[in-house]
Amino acid sequence: MNTIRARGLAWVAAALLCACASPAPQYYSLADADAPTAPTASTGGAAGFIELAPIAMPERLARPQLVVRQKSAGAGPEVDILEQHRWSSSLENELRDALASGIAQRLGAVDATKSGRLRGQPVTRIAVQLRQLDAVESSRVDAGFSWTVRRTEEGPAVACQLFVSEPVGGGIEALARGTQRATAQLADAIARSVTAMQANAANACQR
Asked: Tens digit of pLDDT for each residue in 134-168?
């Protein structure tokens, strides 16, 4: 009887532990699944090679969890770190991967950040800073960026800025998709600034 009772208690304890366990996290990506395939490293594309430096961002955002800003009654804005809603990697890596591939695809270039390049081949170096990312559920995603573009061994860097506000519906997935759209807008803007710089345009930051 004692053995049967002990087994029964162990089963009950295991069931309670399972019932109290947290649900599995939901994972999101900033990558654009509908974007075309980038050229191979052997061709280099019409725009050659690009290199994207690690993304600079505020420390509070440098994590895999989604960070959501809320407005509480009678108080200032509050920030929630959502343990059950995460990017597929840290936000720095997720944003860097999405931008590097997105910019390369838009320019017909090769992302030398991962593939490398032959010695002596020219490369466009890009550095991005995420200055602001405010995600408000059932409202919008506000994002502010700055970046510099520099051609190897060619003149000073071009510095640009972009602010975007993406309206979103309810739910955390809508916030993730809004952030993905903001990232795509940034990739568009950076690609245009690279093209304008290569053409010696007077205003490489024109949208």
From this structure: 999 999 999 999 999 998 766 678 999 999 999 99
Cα 133–Cα 95–Cα 85 angle in degrees, nearest 5: 70
134 in the Ramachandran plot: left (φ > 0), alpha (ψ -120 to 50) or beta? beta
Q: Does 5 score more than 90 pLDDT?
A: no
Nearest to 115 by CA among 55, 184, 50: 50
Q: Between these two residues, 161 and 14, which has the higher pLDDT value?
A: 161
Contact 187, 106 (CB under 8 A): yes
Instruction: Classify residue 85 as exposed, middle or buried by CB count within 10 Å of its CB (0-12, 13-18, 19+).
Output: buried
Supply 46's token pair: 């019409």
Q: Are the C-beta atoms of 86 and 63 separated by less than 8 Å?
A: no
User: E strands within 137-192?
Assistant: 140-151, 154-167
Contact 191, 104 (CB under 8 A): no
